[in-house]
Design brief:
The chain is of the alpha/beta class. Among the domains are: 5-271, Rossmann fold, CATH 3.40.50.12780; 466-637, GMP Synthetase, Chain A, domain 3, CATH 3.30.300.30. A five-stranded parallel sheet has the order 4-3-5-6-7, with helices on both faces. It has a five-stranded mixed sheet with strand order 12-13-14-15-16. α3 (68-79) links the parallel β3 (59-63) and β4 (83-87). α2 packs across α6 (151-164), α8 packs across α9 and α12 packs across α13 (321-342). It is globular, with a radius of gyration of 26 Å. It starts with a helix and ends in an 11-residue tail after the last strand.
């Protein structure tokens, strides 16, 4: 698109000044900011930052949840030609040092006391950080630090300046060009320091616009912005597409109120990673198990109808009149109330991405009338590479290439992408840039996959993670750890999985149970437990998990490529994997290599034939304190199946 983010803001403010642009919930009440008010706020912040010394090319960190003033600060920085860098608000202070120093950040926006404290803690390591502006003043009244000021003060100085220099803001906005740098997003850094992914106004807005055209989005959409702004997925849905389309973005009061706010807003356009859809469904199933006999029977009966009929109706395929009538009744008594209870009564388009979603989970939502689809993309591609058409949503693919995208598969199975949404570069890292961008414009995704006969992309795993079994009856068989992990995570009782097997004779996994789902399962069986560690090691829980593993093995046995990836042994970990302990990235992706080093004693025990292993693990609590959790973990063998050729 031949425009920039600030120009689009002014365009919406001129065309629809009184229309809602953003809503935020504060003290239980939704507050609305119209487009005219947003433009005025951005202008004042921009003028205040100009007086403070922010200039074109500078980098400005923003840390906090989705809030109108956070978005306004990003737009204000972009209006001056500066580059906003959103960082994860749940990152610990030490994780912020590298991005701030790498990008030579001088200015920062911090939502509240928690974020201010982090920045002050690392200030000696980041001496160039001269100004920190905070939004929420609670707890900060007695702080006296050089360069620390309230955003309200910045707004007032900017307002005074704007009153005397009426044309300044618009003149600055007009200076920006579509190919100027608009934002930088740091990768999660699973194998080293994070890399700064540099995007232009053109790359971000082009993909936002392409996605909007694909799904016929208009300014009438309602979106709930509840995921971290530092994650480019949330940034595209609630920032780039917000300005490309002009729809309304709603910011929940807190992470604790998201499910309530979801019901109150009733979004029409919704995005969530699979774990959110899994959690919602787990909540529904737990409630149904606690319901009366009549309600359970009605639910089960109509859900059988939905599974048989719903997906066909969603795909506009012919359905018999009897099934149509049964589905209509189900919609009245079950599906409609269920959608309403989930907050999805108005959803027209819902997307999931980031990890594979289980076929049963995917089918469940589509069967009750929710247009859930999958997409494929990454930080480096400005998200939108492949999307699923409304009537071609499949659980095992991630869609077709959308407008402007070309895809080809390298000899080693790696997916290569050419798109207007590709990164400009990795900041200060020409070597890494050259590794992923070819001279003729192809981006190496590092994902292994293929295009099926209908042109849909299917992802198997990361290229570097696809390995081979060595020795034993499956010698030479392909091993795709993420594929195995995801298949196990399709079960509601399994939250996280770490699979190992490359270069070994067999596949072994370490599992995190879903504490809520398994806890409810245990309570209904009068099985007492004293917390996660105790529940995880119950013999009954091991039987439950073993059933899940063996079902996955049965599925894998009919896959001609991955039959050798069946799981031979497993254990249930004594603690939940946690980003604060370095075991997950901030986007909740498993750091398999780190975990292998940290739990080397458990990996060795899995492969040495032991039946149990003692482990003592240091953990970090939310308040910064450290402690330890120790337990003797059981190790179980599982049944594997002779590979059989799948039916044609």
């Amino acid at each position: 698109m031949e425009t920039t983010f600030p120009r689009l803001l002014l365009q919406h403010a001129a065309q629809r000044p009184a229309d809602p642009a953003l809503r935020e919930k504060e003290y239980g009440i939704w507050q609305t900011h119209d487009w005219a008010a947003m433009a005025a706020m951005v202008a004042q912040i921009a003028c205040g930052l100009h007086l403070a010394g922010l200039v074109a090319g500078d980098h400005m960190v923003v840390m906090g949840a989705n809030r109108p003033r956070l978005y306004a600060t990003m737009l204000a920085a972009q209006s001056l030609g500066a580059v906003p860098i959103p960082l994860y608000q749940d990152a610990v202070a030490a994780e912020c040092v590298f991005p701030i120093n790498n990008a030579e950040v001088r200015f920062a926006f911090a939502e509240d006391q928690e974020q201010v404290d982090k920045l002050l803690e690392i200030r000696e390591q980041c001496p160039q950080l001269i100004a920190i502006y905070y939004d929420d003043p609670r707890g900060l009244r007695k702080y006296s630090e050089p360069g620390l000021a309230s955003l309200d003060v910045l707004l007032q100085t900017g307002k005074d300046f704007a009153g005397k220099n009426v044309s300044f803001f618009r003149t600055e906005v007009e200076k920006a060009k579509p190919d100027d740098v608009a934002a930088m997003f740091f990768t999660s850094g699973t194998t080293g320091n994070p890399k700064g992914v540099v995007h232009t106004h053109r790359s971000l807005l082009d993909r936002g616009h392409a996605g909007a055209l694909f799904d016929k989005l208009t300014h009438r959409e309602e979106v709930l912005a509840y995921l971290p702004p530092a994650w480019i997925g949330q940034n595209i849905f609630s920032y780039a597409q917000w300005l490309a389309c002009g729809y309304v973005v709603n910011c929940p009061e807190s992470s604790a109120t998201v499910t309530i706010d979801l019901k109150e807003i009733g979004p029409t356009y919704y995005f969530a990673p699979p774990r959110v859809f899994e959690a919602l469904l787990t909540t529904v199933m737990i409630r149904m198990e606690d319901a009366g006999w009549i309600k359970r029977k009605m639910f089960d009966g109509f859900m059988n109808v939905a599974k048989r009929v719903g997906p066909a109706l969603m795909d506009h395929k012919p359905v018999g009149i009897v099934d149509q009538a049964a589905y209509f009744l189900g919609n009245v008594f079950v599906y409609g109330p269920l959608r309403n209870n989930l907050g999805f009564s108005r959803v027209r388009v819902a997307y999931t991405a980031g990890e594979a979603i289980g076929p049963d989970l995917f089918t469940f939502y589509r069967s009750i009338g929710i247009n859930l689809k999958q997409l494929y993309g990454s930080t480096e591609t400005a998200v939108f590479v492949c999307l699923q058409p409304d009537d071609q949503a499949k659980a095992d693919t991630v869609g077709i290439p959308i407008s402007g995208v070309e895809i080809k598969v390298a000899e080693n199975g790696e997916i290569l992408v050419k798109s207007p949404g590709l990164l400009k570069e990795y900041y200060k890292n020409p070597k890494a840039t050259a590794e992923v961008l070819t001279a003729d414009g192809w981006y190496h995704t590092s994902d292994a996959g293929f295009l099926d006969a209908q042109g849909h992309l299917k992802i198997i795993d990361r290229v570097k993670d696809v390995g081979r079994i060595k020795g034993g009856p499956n010698d030479g068989a392909m091993f795709a750890p993420k594929y195995v992990e995801n298949k196990l995570k399709f079960f509601p009782y399994v939250k996280e999985v770490v699979a190992y097997g490359d270069g070994r004779e067999q596949v072994c996994v370490m599992i995190n149970i879903d504490f809520d789902a398994v806890g409810n399962w245990a309570e209904r069986r009068n099985l007492p437990y004293a917390g996660y560690t105790d529940l995880a090691q119950k013999p009954e829980v091991y039987v439950l998990v073993k059933e899940c593993v063996e079902k996955v093995n049965a599925d894998l046995s009919v896959d001609e490529h991955l039959a050798g990836s069946q799981v031979s042994r497993f254990l249930v970990l004594h603690k939940e994997l946690d980003a604060d302990d370095g075991e997950l990235t901030r986007t909740n992706k498993v750091r398999r290599g780190f975990i292998a080093e940290k739990y080397q004693v458990l990996v060795d025990a899995l492969y040495s034939g032991k039946n149990e292993q003692f482990v003592d693990t240091q953990v970090k609590f939310e308040d910064g304190r450290t402690g330890s959790i120790s337990a003797t973990l059981k190790i179980a063998d599982t049944k594997t199946f002779t590979p059989v050729k799948a039916a044609a």
